[in-house]
Amino acid sequence: MPRIHIIGVGGYLPERVMTNKDLEAIVDTDDQWIFERTGIRQRHIISEGEHTSDLAAAAARQALDDAGLTIADIDALIVATTTPDMIFPSTASIVQSKLGASGFPAWDIQAVCSGFVYGLAHADAMMRGGMFRRVLLIGAESMSRIMDWTDRSTCVLFGDGAGAVVLEARDAGDEPQGGIIGSVLKADGSYRPLLMARHPHPGASPDMPDMAVDAAGVAAVEMQGNEVFRNAVNKLGEVVGDVLAHCHMQPSDVDLLIPHQANIRIINATAKKLKLGTENIAITVEKHANTSAASVPLALNTYYREGKIRKGQVLLLEAFGAGFVWGANLLRWSKD
Ligand code: ACO
Q: H or E segment at 242?
């Protein structure tokens, strides 16, 4: 059975930066509160006329360049997003077209903030089964489009962006230690009232009539922050243990934790559980905020481009999001 390797990495952040100071002019908040509670100083915001598919396509181009490939070398395209351009068609099929391709399969994964971690497990299983040789996996979000910009408890937390990887199936004999080692995925929909953005169509959530909407009448994020925080810490702590056990590895085998970038306090709790020092944790939440499905690949891209990931290192990726859905992947970096 082949092993699946990351052979290209890319990212894209919209040009416009919104700092905590900028937010002070919009809602009753301040830089100190936001930074102390979350670790966030700024976020990037998509511009008018730009769409999730544009961010995704830009990240994908960089990942293809990094792999030394073109879109013609790709066999399947997956976009993890919770902020698609439209209800249908899928953002993946729009991205495929924007990249100038057609023919090969393209589809979206909706696992909110865990979308990239789910997507990596999904692609790994399909590729090991022989279905595809090269897959382009993208996490892309325009979370600013589903914010209630009058709700200070949510609008300060999120940002927009995209991250992408090119995956390649290689004969296990060539590099028996490298590539994706294993994944664990979890979900429990009974927690859905704690964090959601309801369907924009009237009547789509008849059991929950008091839908939060933004100024334009679009469904916005609703969250019980304390409960989400508590569950994220507990469930991420469990799942990093589960993926290590699944792969017969120890916390001491992990060289770099690439966590979902929601809140520095959640990240530090997981790192503490694994007894990892600051130098072993990828942290981008300060500059990117929570970009949902884009946050893990954006952090991966940032650390990769800064030369902080070396061949042979073991990376642990984890994420937690609405549903709740959560999960983790372990991989050994095989790229120079
Ligand atoms: N600025 C200033 N004050 C604020 C703000 C703000 N932006 N937001 C809330 N407050 C106030 C509240 O009104 C409250 O005031 P009160 O005591 O007078 O009532 C006070 O600050 C404390 O509010 P809490 O909600 O208890 O603050 P907490 O310490 O829990 O921090 C936070 C809130 C940052 C949202 C935290 O609960 C959290 O990070 N939760 C996880 C949420 C998350 O990351 N969700 C993303 C999706 S899921 C995921 O990606 C993991």
A: helix 225-246
In 95-178, DSSP assigns E strands to 106-109, 134-142, 160-170
For ligand 1, atom 31, name the residue with the nearest CA.
Answer: 37
Q: Tens digits of per-residue pLDDT, 43-72?
A: 999 999 999 999 999 999 999 999 999 999
Q: Which residue, by CA, sits nearest to atom 44 of ligand 1?
A: 262
Task: Check 51, 113, 122, 263 and give the catalytic one.
Answer: 113
Return the CATH number at 215. 3.40.47.10
User: Catalytic residue at 288?
Assistant: no
Instruction: State how many domains the chain has.
Output: 1
| Separation between Cα atoms, residue 315 and residue 182, nearest integer Å | 11
Residue-range definition of the domain harbouring residue 174: 1-336
Read off φ and ψ for residue 135, nearest 5 degrees. Answer: -125, 135
Which tens digits make up the pLDDT trace of 71-92? 999 999 999 999 999 989 999 9
Q: Is 2 in the pocket of ligand 1 (CB under 6 A)?
A: no
